[in-house]
Specification:
The chain has 146 residues and is an alpha/beta fold. 32% of the residues lie in helices and 18% in strands. It has one domain: RbsD-like domain (RbsD-like fold, 3-Layer(aba) Sandwich), CATH 3.40.1650.
Length: 146
């Protein structure tokens, strides 16, 4: 255990988050997501039984979002209803806004475009999120010195 570090951030996940550079992306995937296939040779970390919004909260406690892009997060569109906002995405929005202290714009990607972008992510985190469309990609930012 470490002081001030969320207990969900196990050593392997902390190592990946620290190794990421500015502009690198990480995909948080729900329980239905083809995480193994999408990750390929990239790191795949598992948080079984952990809901997506809780995993997002833990990761955002240490990961800065990219402030140099308009939309530092991306989610998967609902198939057949691209304007729908499913419950996990509403929950992700609340977590993002709370962590950043502002409204964080989220990009919405068609299903296969989301898979393709996730294939380029630095790592994939397979959560235990049981709800459909509980997937989000985050772009890492920088911590600027004063």
């Amino acid at each position: 255990m470490l002081k001030g570090i969320d207990p969900l951030l196990a050593p392997d996940l902390l190592r990946v988050l620290a190794a990421m550079g500015h502009g690198d992306e990480i995909c948080l995937a729900d329980a239905n997501f083809p995480a193994e296939a999408v990750a390929g040779s990239r790191p795949l970390l598992r948080l079984p039984g952990v809901p997506g919004p809780r995993a997002l909260e833990a990761i955002l406690s240490v990961l800065p979002l990219d402030s140099f892009v308009g939309k530092p997060a991306a989610v998967m569109q609902v198939v057949g209803d691209p304007d729908a906002v499913p419950p996990p995405v509403r929950d992700f929005q609340m977590v993002l806004d709370r962590a950043e202290g502002r409204a964080v714009p989220i990009e919405s990607l068609e299903r296969f475009a989301f898979y393709e972008r996730a294939r380029g992510a630095f790592a994939v985190v397979a959560t235990g999120e049981p709800r459909a469309y509980g997937n989000i990609i985050l772009k890492k930012g920088v911590i600027l010195s004063p």
